[in-house]
Amino acid sequence: MFSQIASEWPDFATYYNMLFLAQAAGTTLALSALGVVLGSLLGLALAVTRTTRGRLLAPLRTLAFTFTEIFRRVPFLVTLMLAFFVFQMFFADTSLFVVAAVTTTLIAAAFLSEIIRGGLNSVHPNQWEAAAAMNFSLLQTIRHVVLPQAWRIILPPAFGFFVLFIKDTALASQIGVVELTYAGKVLNNKGFSPALAFGAILIIYFLISYPLARLGAALEARLASSRHHRS
Amino acid sequence: MSYVLQYGQVWPYLPRLLEGALLSIQIAVLAFSGGLLIGTACAAVKSFGPRWAVAAVGVYVTFFVNTPQLVQIYFLYFVLPDSGILLSSYNAVLLGMTLNAGAYLTEIQRAGFESSRRSEIEAAEVLGFSRLQQIRYVILPHVARVLFPPLSNHFIIMTLGTSMASVFGVEELTGEALNVNALTFRSVEVFTITAGIYVVLTLVASTLLALFGRYAFRVRTRAA
pLDDT tens per residue, chain A (231 residues)? Predict the structure, then answer.
């Protein structure tokens, strides 16, 4: 296996192959970052909706609850296929990247809304009541009272989710988005041995994911300790 | 825009999808059990093993946690034949998912082991518990209660992860969905039904696990 890789290496390590891999890695990162950024906005909206108490908003709460439950309980691949075919129904010329990005946004929103909701709930009820007593609206309460305290709780698990999510986007290769996993299949089809093609892909994923995971762990330790000092 | 949903053409294939769902559950249960064995062994090594073994487990866990499960299975499925090891797609998926689960479950369980408090063990020693009694009456009940929620959560994640097997041609739920899709061309219908089956499957699994945890280990119920 290793002698084969060594003999293929000169053909593999060409400028255009490296460029191709770098672009594919960029697509993987863009897909997961886009999903997490848009997903956290949508997730915040879902989480805030679920903290409301008014009776008139009950249908909205049910809707937010159903959304989170469904998208957390359907596999990435199935959601992706569903998004793919729904886009085919209505907007058949949408690019595959957009289809995949919409899917990652929906799924990330569902998972992140649970993380954000946990953060919102971690703020003591007294704070919510004090804000209400001072006639803050719901959005003012969230913006000026709750989020400044909750972000320390939210950020570490949200970042952890982002790092996990980078690896989940490998499934986007199944509808034909040219991200890292798809690039591995392309290189394999070009005639490079699977050990080299998929080995290289594994290493690139590792190089992306490992530093981010370490960063996440550092972030968690730092925020946890600063929280500890304050209380 | 002129697409009309026609579920009537897909319902006759429901038994096929449900058969696929059974295979999904089978893969999830097998891979989770295997992963639990690996995870327990590795977590024990990480806590009590010699330094070289700790390092080896560290490499295994770091590598499998930081790469996608899909590419790991690709690697097993396409690279091992070069070394003369031919795996059927089912076995490759099962092996890949087991190894992947082993890495994640090592992490989860080590956190659980570390949560058993020194003072509790000392109290048990003072009361004259033997080592086995300490494990049986003090450490295990505590660790089980701490570990049960994250473990059952990972089982749900793995149940969803079995859909990856369809990429390799295993006819579990997603694989059967692709088959039925190819037979009927009713894509949206097929995949909404499939999504529904996954939702029901994981809801039932979470509920059963939560009930089991509450009665067996007195896990405090989480909010829905």
Answer: 778 888 888 888 889 999 999 999 999 999 999 999 999 999 999 999 998 888 888 999 999 999 999 999 999 999 999 999 999 888 888 899 999 999 999 999 999 999 999 999 999 989 999 999 999 998 899 999 999 999 999 999 999 999 999 999 999 999 999 999 999 999 999 989 999 999 999 999 999 999 999 999 999 888 876 655 444
B221 in a structural domain: no
Domain holding B63, by residue range, is 7-216
Of B65, B74, B174, the CB nearest to A78: B174
In chain A, where are the structural domains located? 2-230
User: What is the length of chain A?
Assistant: 231
List the single residue in B188, B198, B199 with the smallest CB-CB distance to A89: B188
- Whether B187 sits inside 8 A of A209 (CB atoms) is no
Question: Is B191 in the A-facing interface, judged by CB distances under 8 Å?
Answer: yes
Residues 6+ apart with CB under 8 A from A13: none
On whether any CB of chain A is under 8 Å from the CB of B163, the answer is: yes
- Residues B218, A75: Cα–Cα separation, whole Å: 30
Domain presence at residue B1: no
Per CATH, domain A2-230 is 2.60.120.380: no
Please answer yes or no on whether B70 and A173 come within 8 Å at the CB atom: yes
Q: What is the model's pTM?
A: 0.89
Tell me, what CATH number does B119's domain have? 1.10.3720.10
Distance from CA of B121 to the nearest CA of A (A): 26
**Number of domains into which chain B is organized:** 1
Query: Is B212 part of the contact surface with chain A (CB cutoff 8 Å)?
Result: no
ipTM summary value: 0.88
Find the CB nearest B79 among A85, A195, A206.
Answer: A195
Give the residue from B4, B17, B163, B206 with the most A CB atoms within 10 Å of its CB, the best one to mutate: B163
